[in-house]
Specification:
Layout lengths: L4 H4 L25 H20 L1 H12 L3 H17 L1 H11 L1 H19 L5 H30 L4 H30 L1 H12 L1 H7 L6 H14 L7 H10 L5 H24 L5 H31 L9 H30 L3 H6 L2 H20 L6 H18 L6 H14 L6 H9 L4 H30 L3 H20 L13 H5 L1
Length: 515
């Protein structure tokens, strides 16, 4: 099956030239500050994804407080989860223009503001705006940079690094469930949200840790990648022809634009140097003009990269496997989100609250989820194992658990299924790795933004749909069955793609590759 993007023939602008000069790898790639990036991403997953996985506690409080239907109330949690992921493509534009660090810090402030304003909610519709939209956008502005930065800093141990950082979701779900339950009992849900807003300000600290790599460091990473792939030089001619046929190699216009931009800035600097004898007001005006020019150039370059990734000749949508990946993401995420939102209600219906209070089922998912991400990441990094195959096997296991869950009506049965859901959903740590293999590091931010946007649409409509089905049938069984069947459709889309083939032999000659 699928192994890496060169087998498919898509490279999307990665620097694939084989260099004869050995370049000393940067110590911060796969080591050094890279582990601080993992720590930052880990904390982001605790504070954002972990908090969202614990929203079932607040959902029950909102049902009692506002006395609305389950379908309408579930929209609050769904908006927050969905918008966090849906804004991914637009956050990719922010990252292209401002960088990951600035984007994450702004997002941390916005997320905290959403939690704090939600403490003063007078109805569910108020929560739609403050918690769903405001906190959701802020979460998205922190989440995407946290994932992208790990991909930039790691090459050899990408799956393990992503697995370690995303275990924050499991830790966060376990910790935040206990924390929110305690805060709601002791202080009420309004004060609990206010306190959580103050805690969320730590996202700004996580953003400050996202030190960007220099262009030189990124080039060195590409060199390490090209040297480590045996078939790279042999397939270079074939890959170049394939990419050219898709219109991906568009570096010359970019170079011309950069040269024009440098000429503009150079003329401004020349004018500034020549006018030193002028008045102070003129000098201030020149400096202001130079600053505005630099800002304009940065925005134009960032927007050009973002636009070309989605709509230009180098559009990511020319990759058919990537398109199938998007279709899968549209159906997959709701199957994971629905249990977190509605399990507390299901436990209450089955009169299992006593056992669930001792050890909540959502906490079981969260704890096993941690081990699932790490173990699947380690397995995927083994040289004899295909990341794609591990990814598919985990998906098959998860969809089986979703279809089986309604059949379990005892605490022991539900606990076993929840443990399997937690472990198999560890494939989330492989999603950035699979995405990067498909499109390359250069387009990772935009490509992963599309994937999490599709996940966001799934998360947005999944829980309200489950609540709506319950309002009609007075049970959640059909919600899980329908979600599981849609999930299976997404997996089938990945399997039937003609581009997903078994790995070709590595010992092909250049002539055979061209044929």
């Amino acid at each position: 099956m699928y192994a890496s993007r060169e087998d498919i023939g898509y490279d999307f602008g990665d620097d694939s030239k084989v260099r004869s000069k050995p370049i000393k790898p940067n110590p911060n790639i796969d080591g050094g500050w890279a582990w601080m990036i993992v720590l930052s991403s880990f904390l982001v997953h605790i504070l954002i994804m972990g908090s969202q996985m614990a929203l079932g506690i607040l959902n029950m409080e909102w049902l009692e407080e506002f006395n609305q239907s389950r379908g309408l109330t579930a929209w609050v949690s769904s908006l927050s989860m969905g918008i966090t992921l849906i804004v991914g493509p637009f956050i990719g534009l922010f990252i292209s223009m401002c960088g990951c660090r600035t984007t994450a810090i702004i997002g941390g402030i916005l997320n905290a503001l959403g939690w704090i304003l939600s403490a003063y909610a007078s109805n569910v519709h108020y929560l739609f705006l403050t918690f769903g939209v405001t906190a959701g956008i802020g979460s998205g502005m922190v989440y995407l940079p946290a994932v992208v930065m790990v991909g930039q800093y790691f090459q050899k141990r990408r799956a393990l690094a992503q697995g370690l950082s995303t275990t924050g979701t499991g830790f966060g779900a376990f910790l935040m469930t206990a924390l929110l339950k305690y805060l709601c009992i002791e202080f009420g849900w309004r004060n609990a949200m206010f306190i959580q807003g103050a805690i969320s300000l730590n996202l700004c600290v996580c953003g400050a840790l996202m030190r960007p790599l220099s262009p030189k460091d990124l080039r060195e990473k590409y060199v390490v990648r090209s040297d480590s792939e045996e078939n790279r030089a042999k397939a270079l001619s074939h890959s170049t022809e394939t990419i050219k046929s898709n219109g991906v190699l568009g570096e010359e216009p970019e170079k011309k634009e950069e040269a024009a931009n440098e000429e503009v800035l150079g003329s401004v600097q020349h004018t500034e140097l020549g006018g030193k004898s002028g008045s102070g007001r003129s000098m201030y005006g020149l400096r202001l003009f130079k600053t505005v020019s630099q800002l304009t150039i940065t925005v134009r370059k960032g927007f050009a990269l973002w636009y070309s990734s989605y709509f230009g000749a180098a559009s990511l949508f020319t990759n058919r496997v990537f398109v199938a990946f998007i279709i899968w993401a549209l159906f997959a995420y709701s199957s994971f989100v629905i249990p977190f939102i509605h399990l507390p209600e299901i436990v209450k219906q089955y009169n299992l609250s006593k056992q669930d209070n001792v050890f909540p089922l959502t906490s079981i998912i969260a704890i096993v989820h941690i081990f699932g991400k790490v173990i699947l990441g380690i397995i995927s990094d083994l040289p004899c194992i295909s990341t794609w195959n591990v990814f598919l096997m985990a998906n098959f296991t998860l969809v089986t658990c979703i279809l089986t869950l309604p059949l379990m009506q005892t605490y022991a049965g539900l606990a076993v299924v929840c443990a399997l859901i937690g472990f198999s959903s560890g494939y989330f740590s492989l999603m950035p790795v699979v995405t990067e293999d498909l499109v390359g590091t250069k387009h990772l931010a935009n490509a992963y933004g599309i994937i999490i946007c599709a996940n966001g649409i799934s998360a947005l409509f999944g829980p309200p749909f489950a609540g709506w089905i319950y309002d009609i049938t007075q049970k959640y069984d059909f919600s899980f069955y329908i979600a599981g069947l849609l999930y299976m459709v997404g997996i089938i889309c990945l399997l039937i793609q003609p581009c997903i083939q078994k790995k070709q032999p590595r010992e092909k000659s250049t002539e055979e590759a061209q044929v």
